[in-house]
């Protein structure tokens, strides 16, 4: 199976909880998100849809300076 590349923006970080806004299509619940940062790519897992453009994910690594 080929992974779909979707681009979003981190809109909020609260501890291990990360909200991400997408311009169009949302990733499926349970999908992993790679959050690009200068010091690496921590992963987060999509847990819920907040609305038609935003998802809530749980970080699988430290979130300090993620936003």
From TrEMBL:
The keyword Ubl conjugation does not apply. Keywords: ATP synthesis, Transport. This is ATPase F1/V1/A1 complex alpha/beta subunit N-terminal domain-containing protein. The keyword Transport applies. Belongs to the ATPase alpha/beta chains family. Coiled coil: none annotated. InterPro entries: ATPase_F1/V1/A1_a/bsu_N (IPR004100), ATPase_F1/V1/A1_a/bsu_N_sf (IPR036121). Gene3D superfamilies: 2.40.10.170. It comes from the Bacteria. It holds the Pfam family ATP-synt_ab_N. Residues 10-64 form the ATPase F1/V1/A1 complex alpha/beta subunit N-terminal domain. SUPFAM superfamilies: N-terminal domain of alpha and beta subunits of F1 ATP synthase (SSF50615).
